[in-house]
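Table S2 (text version). Query chain:
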Amino acid sequence: MLSSFLSQREQQGAQQAQDMEIQNIECDDPHEKVRAPMVEVESYPRLIEAIPSLETDFFRSPIPEEERKEIIYECPKFLGMKYTPPPLNEAATSAVRKNDATFYGIQMALANLTRPIDDYVHRKLKNPSTMIQGNEDLEIIKSITIIALKDKKEITSKARAIGATIAAKTGISTDAILTQANWSSYYMFSSYYKLSNDSYSNITESVLSELT
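Corresponding structure-token output:
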């Protein structure tokens, strides 16, 4: 049984190594490094010139509030898009309202993030020669929107995680947090709450640093 398992592992390792060799042969970009199952691109002068933020700590380098507003509000609103989240529950306790307001702000930021993206597409489409089908720029923008905004389950989980972390930091009891956030178990809450959790530590610390 053990020998069969080890033999299977060796075959898997050999196959992975073979796949890596094939990928390395096919990878002709000197800045790309293959680390199965993904490709890593190292920074180089022209790339940094085009995207300076690549050399900054994304979550620990927030732009000033006024600059953020200028970027967002210089773009038009699009009538089909609902930018305002559902209203806050004014009947809730003051502590809950405070945390809900923070959550509301996160939702607003996510919604308004679409404005520069939508405006770029709108300006591209003013050119009659712009093709929609097979347009690489539009496909990338669509992918960004889906990943960042359309995955409701992922956004809800992260936003609830942030809200729960803020609530815990302000001294609200775990029982109250579990009730208000509709967590199904203490384990689920604690897995999101822990700042050491790799999946959520950066975004959680980023929000907490803005509040403290």
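Notes on Table S2: Residues 62-112+151-211 form one domain. The first helix runs from residue 2 to 26.
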